[in-house]
Amino acid sequence: MFKTVRGMRDLLPVDAERMRHVEQVSREISKLYGYDEIITPVLESYDLLAAKTSEEIRERMYTFKDLGGRKVALRPEFTASVARLVATKLRNEPKPMRLFSVGSLYRYDEPQYGRFREFWQANYELFGSTRPEADAEILILTNDLLKRLGLQNYRFKIGHTEILRGILNQEGLDEGKQNSVRQLLDKKSWEEALTIARDADVSQKCLTTLERLFETRGEDAFQVLEGVKEIVQEYESALAAVENLWKILELVRDSGAQLDVMVEAGFARGLEYYTGMIFEPYVPEVDVALGGGGRYDKLIQLFGGEPIPAVGVAQGIDRIVLSLKKQEVSPKTTKEMSVVVISVKNESMGKALELSDILRKSGLPVEVEVMGRSISRALADADRRGVAYAVIVGPEELKYEKVVLREMKKSEQRTVPISNLTEAIFASLK
Predict the structure, then answer these.
(1) How many other CB atoms sit within 10 Å of the CB of residue 96?
(2) Which one, of 115, 114, 139, lies nearest residue 324 by Cα?
(3) Whole-prediction pTM
(4) Which CATH architecture has domain 334-429?
């Protein structure tokens, strides 16, 4: 008996519909905010995907040699592919440039709740602006998406990667050690991160600053940032990063978006290419980030392009679906307006097919009873599957250009003129 490969899943109709609903709303948001959709390959060269991701992700990529002997990999994220596109085919496009992509990604992680080896993301990236309003837009867009999906009690964990980088650069830590510190902070291994800094012979002032930063977090964003300013006052670049984050959050506040924010001074994300604000939305019911993003101003030039500032976010579709299920938030489905057309006799089947076509053209999802069941068995099957309406086409009613319309939930039916059938169904939906 064949089974799915470990870490992969079959999505049955209910779960597939939930996934596609989140994808659909994500696409609607992209259009509302002016993001143009692009489609990039699932398979890319290994060198491209490994160029500037974290060592942890490099080790978990699905890699192999193709029949031409080239080392290739399944994409573990979208950003490298998008960066390649921006550095080549889109390099002369006017800025700002807003791009949207959605699809499946692959990482050889240990399967667990909220973590799969094949997963889906919706990606939004804004290229060309260094200004804080671009960062604010990405935060506001993410908030808008989660709100439209009906998610409750979600929060944003927000930080700024240049706070930590500014301190460690001033202390002379090389990029490799800085990346190790960030990887540990991403896993909340604060003591181990401090050990790396201590072993690198940073100053006692630096160690004290880091210890205080790692303990600094809170829901009053501007109060927390005031505290961070005081902690990093002797590190010029870190102080500038705090000011930048202050301005971003000030713009979000002034927009009226009402984000529930947790500022965390020692927050880090695993990917190495971030250069500014970073964030992750989450809900308490699901102990994983729903997505994540931030600013990466130097990534495009790593792929041979001109320096182009950028900020973006990847929304985790699987994890958003898990959170919506946990909160018992169900999308409106086509089942609520679905119709089954049942022909009483073989000679009325042609009329049944004609009516089904008319109803579909009005936007109603319609299926025709094709199993030759009796009326009672066909209705029982429709009820079991949650179909909302049954249209029963019988020879006697057809003599008067009428059919029987049955509302399944109410177990009520009435005879209606064929000319008014569509209107009768839509009227009962109100």
Answers:
(1) 16
(2) 114
(3) 0.87
(4) 3-Layer(aba) Sandwich (3.40)
